[in-house]
Amino acid sequence: MAGIAVGDETPWGVAAELSRLLPGTTTAAHGPEDIAARGASAVVTQMLDDAADRRIVAVVRDVHRHDWMAGVLHALLAARPDTVVVEMGVPQAPPGGALHIATRGAARVCGRAAAEVITGVSTGAVTGNEAGH
């Protein structure tokens, strides 16, 4: 059972922020059920085909805890070492990718910060605390 702060209802990741900063960004999500049904190789092939020559940003959460996720990430990085990896959980696995960002959390602000690093665009957004409120 999900609580208020967690669950499918709570958005996390960098997709929304990247889409805002880079209109035309496309996203896909893959979970253990998808990998079990289609196989890691088929999922990675689909990612590569969908991306073509565009930059790939792989967003993971606690990759060290999930063998399926680590396997897909490893295969993706073998095929596209220029992939940007964003770890939004606890960064325990060795860093990989052309750029490895560890946000140490999956709050929306973490996704915003990662998107700003990836794009080089600062939104200048501040929260109430940062603005002195």
TrEMBL record:
Keyword list, A-Z: Hydrolase
Superkingdom: Bacteria
Hydrolase in keyword set: yes
GO molecular function, one term: hydrolase activity
Name of the featured protein: Putative sugar hydrolase
